[in-house]
Amino acid sequence: EPDVTIVSGLKDMVVFEGDDVTFRCQVSHENARDIEWKLQDVALQNNEMNEISVEKGKIHILTLRKVTEQDIGTITFRVGPHTSTA
Questions:
Q1: Do 45 and 60 touch, CB atoms closer than 8 A?
Q2: Confidence of residue 1 (pLDDT cuts 50, 70, 90)
Q3: pLDDT at residue 2 above 80?
Q4: Which residue ranges does the record assign to the Ig-like domain (predicted)?
């Protein structure tokens, strides 16, 4: 299985409380396994507040809905041994 790397990393975002914010990270291969999104070292699951999806097989997307002050911090995307933060 080829080593999946990060082609295009996360970008820092500034948003207002109550807004949604979307992070995108592009990887080198489709159907990448061993993917993880974190906020402040806490793993994120796909639920009503966090939407995790994949576009065109390679672009991994995290949308945080109606952010609050508690959502301030570092977002981390990890695929295998590679990480990107914002």
A1: no
A2: low
A3: no
A4: 2-86
Q: Which residues of 3-26 are buried (b: 16+ CB within 10 A; e: fewer)?
A: ebebeeebeeeeeeeeeebebebe
Total structural domains within the chain: 1
Task: For residue 30, tell me if it sits in a domain.
Answer: yes
Domain that includes residue 25, residue range: 6-85
Q: Does residue 76 form part of some domain?
A: yes
Phi and psi (nearest 5°) for 69?
Answer: -55, -30
Residue 1 lies in a domain: no
10-31 per-position pLDDT tens digit:
999 999 999 999 999 999 999 8
d(CA 18, CA 66) in angstroms, rounded, equals 4
- In the three-class reduction of DSSP (H, G, I as helix; E, B as strand; rest coil), residue 57 is classed as coil
Residue 20's domain is classified under what CATH number?
Answer: 2.60.40.10
